């Protein structure tokens, strides 16, 4: 039986593996079908990880992590996990693709989430080259420039407000004339002189070139006309696909899940199910930053070690 099964090989999963094995656990396996690294590997520039002063792409940034995190005995199994289930004796069964199963005393789930795509022309072509889903990650690249934000929920409103601290102007585009965000946040945005609301509108196209990236955004207005915003960047916030499928046993989740799909945890990354931990973008209120995900993984591993000790 495994001491700890870690599901997901991004910063949270790798960090959990490092702390669990360095902490003395001998039988720890990280299940990640592809190469470890997570979403950050698709980022073109990584410059806000404390202690790493060199600006580099996400793939280069993550490349040393696997070697370091496996140094103390973490095993990487290239297999997809289909589900996690709780056994009557308190242990867990991990069902892999193809029907193979593993047993574990504790499980740390770090499967993350992926931003939903808005579906406009040019979104995929310029993703990471002017189309972004993270203002904290990429806002600095547009210092004193104009940018666009798409969305009408709390995240879109908060990120638009955040971008006004960096950018000269923010165009906030929303398909309706009312917002789903908290009224107090909406009022703040309406009073912010740096934000121009473009309501009852959709993105028709993002355009640019392969070298310079995004050069502008064509917005379709309510009357059918097109407004051309000459901006080098657009941030889209139209929701998240939380990758919580592995926590579903039959038609029920094995732990408490919030309406957003994120997993409910405490400060120790413990879910409502003893021995089951969630870390990184999967857990509630995740800030979606590499440094936070790595910290989550460390916390979850330390908590898992304490849980395993309590079994004896």
UniProtKB/TrEMBL annotation:
PROSITE patterns: PYRIDINE_REDOX_2. GO terms for cellular component: cytoplasm. Its EC number is 1.8.1.9. GO terms for biological process: removal of superoxide radicals. Binds 1 FAD per subunit. It comes from the Bacteria. It catalyses: [thioredoxin]-dithiol + NADP(+) = [thioredoxin]-disulfide + NADPH + H(+). Pfam families: Pyr_redox_2. Keywords: Disulfide bond, FAD, Flavoprotein, NADP, Oxidoreductase, Redox-active center. GO terms for molecular function: thioredoxin-disulfide reductase (NADPH) activity. Its cofactor is FAD. Belongs to the class-II pyridine nucleotide-disulfide oxidoreductase family. Homodimer. This is Thioredoxin reductase. It comes from Campylobacter devanensis. The lineage of its organism: Bacteria, Pseudomonadati, Campylobacterota, Epsilonproteobacteria, Campylobacterales.
């Amino acid at each position: 039986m495994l001491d700890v099964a870690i599901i997901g090989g991004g910063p949270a999963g790798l960090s959990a593996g490092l702390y669990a094995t360095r902490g003395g656990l001998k039988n720890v396996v990280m299940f990640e079908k592809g190469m470890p690294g997570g979403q950050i590997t698709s980022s073109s520039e990584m410059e806000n990880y404390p202690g790493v002063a060199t600006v580099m792409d996400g793939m280069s940034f993550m490349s040393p992590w696997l070697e370091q995190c496996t140094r103390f005995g973490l095993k990487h199994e290239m297999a997809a996990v289909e589900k996690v289930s709780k056994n009557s004796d308190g242990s867990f069964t991990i069902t892999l693709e193809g029907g193979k199963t593993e047993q574990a005393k504790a499980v740390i789930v770090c499967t993350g989430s992926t931003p939903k795509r808005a579906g406009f022309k040019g979104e995929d072509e310029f993703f990471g080259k002017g189309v972004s889903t993270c203002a904290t990650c990429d806002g600095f690249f547009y210092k004193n420039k104009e940018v666009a934000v798409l969305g009408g929920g709390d995240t879109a409103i908060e990120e638009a407000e955040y971008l006004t601290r960096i950018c000269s102007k923010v165009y906030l585009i929303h398909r309706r004339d009312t917002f789903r965000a908290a009224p107090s946040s909406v009022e703040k945005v309406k009073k912010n002189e740096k934000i121009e609301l473009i309501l009852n509108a959709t993105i028709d196209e993002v355009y640019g070139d392969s070298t310079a990236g995004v050069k502008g955004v064509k917005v379709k207005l309510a009357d059918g006309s097109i407004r051309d915003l000459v901006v080098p960047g657009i941030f889209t916030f139209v929701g998240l696909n939380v990758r919580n499928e592995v926590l579903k046993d039959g038609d029920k989740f094995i732990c408490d899940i919030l309406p957003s799909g994120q997993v409910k945890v405490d400060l120790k990354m413990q879910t409502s199910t003893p021995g089951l931990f969630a870390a990184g973008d999967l857990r509630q209120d995740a800030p979606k930053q590499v440094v936070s995900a790595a910290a989550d993984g460390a916390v979850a591993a330390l908590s898992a070690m304490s849980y395993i000790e309590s079994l004896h």
